[in-house]
Amino acid sequence: xxxxxxxIIGAGPGGYVSAIRCAQLGLKTAIVEGRETLGGTCLNIxxxxxxxxxxxTHMLHEAEHNFAGMGLKGKSPSVDWNQMKSYKEDVVGQNTxxxxxxxxxxxxxWLKGWASIPAAGQVKVGDETHxxxxxxxxxxxxxxxxxGVEVDEKVVVTSTGALDLPxxxxxxxxxxxxxxxxxxxxxxxxxxxxxxxxxxxxAVCPGMDKDVQRGFKRILxxxxxxFIMGAAVQGVEASKTKAxxxxxxxxxxxxxxxxxxxxxxxxxxxPYADGLGLDALGVKLTERGQIATDAQWRTNVPxxxxxxxVIEGPMLAHKAEDEGMAVADVIAGKHGHxxxxxxxxxxxxxxxxxTVGATEDALKAEGRAIKVGKFNFxxxxxxxxxxxxxxxxxxxIVDKETDRILGAAIIGPGAGDLIHELCVAxxxxxxxxxxxxxxxxxxxxxxxxxxxxxxxxxxxxxS
Length: 463
Ligand code: NAI
Fold this sequence. Notes:
- The chain is of the alpha/beta class.
- It is built from 14 helices and 22 strands.
- It is globular.
C-alpha cells in the first residue's frame, strides 16, 4: 500500500498524459492499468494500429494505381497479410514501450491491474488498497453495438477485431459511415475486399458540412467503396464463417439482406467505467451514461475527477490529452483550461478529411452572418503531383463583419496537419486576412489554405 497525491485510473492518451503533467507539477503520481501494455485503446487497438494499416494499404494503392504512370514499372506488390499485421504490431509496440519509458522517466508508478474505488481517497488494485488525495478516472470507452447484432470478434467484429482479422475477407459489410467505418472500410477496400457501407443517415460523417460529406463520399466511391444510405440495420445473422446483414430502407419498402464474410460494426462507442464502483460512491452520470463533471473535471464526489471518453464531448484522443493536462493543473492549484471550440477532427483516409470549429450549415441555421472562402486542390500544384487533388478543397467559414475565422474544413493531402494552421489562427482570434497576408511556401499544400483565406476577401489567385 502506498500514498499518492494523484492516482490516475486508465493509461490511454488522457490518463498517461495527465500522469506526466501531474509528475511535472511535483505531484506524487501513480497510474493504474490492467492491460499488459500502456497507451489504452488509442495505442493498442485504435488510432495507432489503424494508421499503420492505412499507411501500408495506401502504399499498395499507389503501387497498383499510380506507379506505372510515374514511370515506376514492374509487378505490383502482393500482400503478405501476416507480415502487414506484424508491422502494425511492431508500430504499436514501439509506441506502448515509449509510454512505459515516459512513466519511468517521470517516476510515475504503474499499478498493474484493474482498479476500483472503495471510497473517496482510496484505489484498490488487486489485493492492495492505495490512498490518493485525488483520483482521476480516465477509463475511456468501448464499442457500442446494436440490438440484434452480436459481436463475436471473428465474423461480426468491432474495430478491435477488424484490426486483427485472420484473413482478408472477400466481402465486408460495414455498419455505420462514421470515422471508424470509413477508415477501416478504406483499408479493406484497398486490400481487395468488396466493401459495402450501410448507413442510417443520408450522408457520411454525421456533423460535417453537406459539401464535405458529399465530396468525401464521392472520393470514397471512386476508390471502390459501395454505400447504402438511409438504411437502418435491424440485425445480423451469423454462422462461423458468414453473415447476413438485414436492413430496413428508411424511405419504406421491404427489409433487405446483404451477405458478408465479415461485418464491421462501427456505430459509435460508449463510455466505460465498469467495475470502479462509481454507483456505490454516488458519482453522478449524465443521461447518456457519461460521468458528469463540472468545468474543471470534478465529479460530484470531492477528490474524484474524470476526463476523456468517459465524460461528455467528442471521443477523441487529443481532447482527452488536453483534459488530462488541464485537470493536472487544477489538482496542482493552477487554472486548467480546454478550449472546446477549437478541437480538430481528422479522418485518416487518403485524402484526409479535417475539420475544426463551427460548420457552415450550423451557422447558417442559426442565422449568423458569415462569409465562406473555398479553394479547390485541383489548382494546387503539389496536390496534383501526388494524385490527391481531385475532389479536395479547403473551406474557411468566417464572420461577415469581423472576418474572424469561425471554422474550417479540408479534404486533401495532409489535411490532418494543415488544419492546425487554422487551429492556431482561431486560438489567436485571427481573421481570414491574417492568414491571407502570411507568406506560405511554394509549392506546398498549405498554399490552398492561404488561397481559401484570400477567397474570403478580394479573391483567390489561382481560381
Ligand atoms: P460515429 O458515431 O462516428 O459513426 C457511427 C455511424 O453509425 C453514424 O453515422 C450513425 O448514423 C451510424 N449508425 C448508427 N446506427 C445505425 C444502424 N442501425 N444502421 C445503420 N447505421 C447506423 O462512430 P464510430 O465511427 O464507430 O466512431 C466511434 C468514436 O470513435 C467516434 O466518436 C469517433 O470520433 C472516434 N474515432 C475517431 C477517429 C479519428 O479521430 N480519426 C478514428 C476512430 C474513432
